[in-house]
Design goal:
Structural class: alpha/beta
CATH superfamily of the largest domain: NAD(P)-binding Rossmann-like Domain
Distance between the termini: 29 Å
Number of helices: 11
Shape: elongated
Largest sheet: 7 strands, parallel
Order of helices and strands: EHEHEHEHEHHEHEEHEHEHEEH
Number of domains: 2
């Protein structure tokens, strides 16, 4: 195989470049940004980018492009008509997010359970006052979407003594799940009614957009806490605000939103029963190292003509 021209739309450390060149020393690594990438596309064979980056114009200018790899799990901006109609391989970085995202979810769950959300506000006012506290042990978590992230959340929740419910499209044997539900809406509503903590861990597709609405919040316990670490568009945000303001649910931990950054006039900012983080659940000092290690594995497979990991179904969107 002739030398590959690899265009990467993200900065790489020398150690990360070395992981790639260890696969093939002749790979030509071009590190650039979206603004400057266009000039490199006529000779590009492999493009490494993010699933939310606008790359359609780059694709149209790349006659030799064979493979796009997303450094993210989501690929919503990479599913444009041209790539869907072509044989271009599309892969993602599914499988590397479980550790930081699951820790982020547990941090928010524990913050509510142990009253830390109240303690921090009292600390800011110099107020010494005991607040209600609880335990995760013995409570029930429902995970909507049992992919690699959902499984890591389930594993940690089970270690804390929780009952784990989960939903997914295909029935499988799951080591850390007590009850697995189908993904149809009736089954989802049934699962939600039993949960004390609900976590959304679905990919964003046409089928999952606005999937969680007022009917789902109504089915939840009034004492339930809701968490979204997937994509904001999966949840009807107006319905979520209604559920929080009318006490249909007790609180929410939100890392993703319908519009990002979250608009300054969003009611969510001032709700005392909401934890807001700015789409950081997957961030970790180890993130890019893990992503490049996965990419390098796939690069080996690509060069050798072997089956590749994490090939995205361009119709399903994941």
């Amino acid at each position: 195989m002739a030398a590959l021209n690899l265009v990467v739309l993200n900065q790489l450390a020398d150690r990360q470049k070395e992981v790639i060149t260890a696969v093939d020393p002749n790979v030509n690594i071009i590190v650039t940004d979206e603004k400057s990438a266009l000039e490199h596309m006529p000779s590009c064979h492999v493009l490494v980018t993010w699933g939310w980056s606008e790359t359609r114009h780059l694709y149209q200018a790349a006659p030799h492009l064979e493979w796009i790899h997303a450094l993210s799990a989501g690929v919503e901006k990479l599913l444009f008509p041209e790539i869907q109609a072509a044989d271009t391989i599309l892969t993602n970085s599914k499988g590397i997010h479980g550790i930081p995202v699951s820790e982020h979810v547990l941090a928010m769950m524990l913050a509510f359970s142990r009253g830390l959300t109240i303690s921090l506000r009292q600390q800011a006012c110099g107020q010494w006052k005991r607040m209600p506290t609880g335990e995760l042990h013995g409570h029930t978590i429902a995970i909507v979407g049992l992919g690699s992230i959902g499984r890591e959340i389930a594993k940690k929740a089970k270690a804390l003594g929780m009952t784990v419910l989960a939903s997914k499209q295909e029935a499988t044997t799951e080591l850390f799940v007590d009850t697995l539900y189908p993904s149809d809406d009736d089954s989802l509503l049934e699962m939600l009614s039993h949960a004390d903590y609900i976590v959304i861990a679905l990919p964003l597709t046409e089928e999952t957009e606005n999937k969680i609405s007022l009917a789902h919040f109504t089915a939840m316990k009034r004492s339930a806490y809701f968490f979204n670490i997937a994509r904001g568009a999966i949840v009807n945000e107006i319905d979520l605000i209604t559920a929080l303001s009318t006490n249909l649910i007790q609180g929410a931990g939100l890392d993703v939103f319908a519009h990002e950054p979250l608009p300054e006039d969003s009611p969510l900012w001032s709700m005392p029963n909401v934890i807001i983080t700015p789409h950081v659940a997957a961030l970790s000092p180890a993130y890019l190292d893990r992503a490049i290690k996965l990419f390098a594995d796939n690069l080996t497979r690509f060069i050798q003509g072997r089956n590749m990991l994490n090939i995205v179904d361009k119709v399903k969107g994941y």
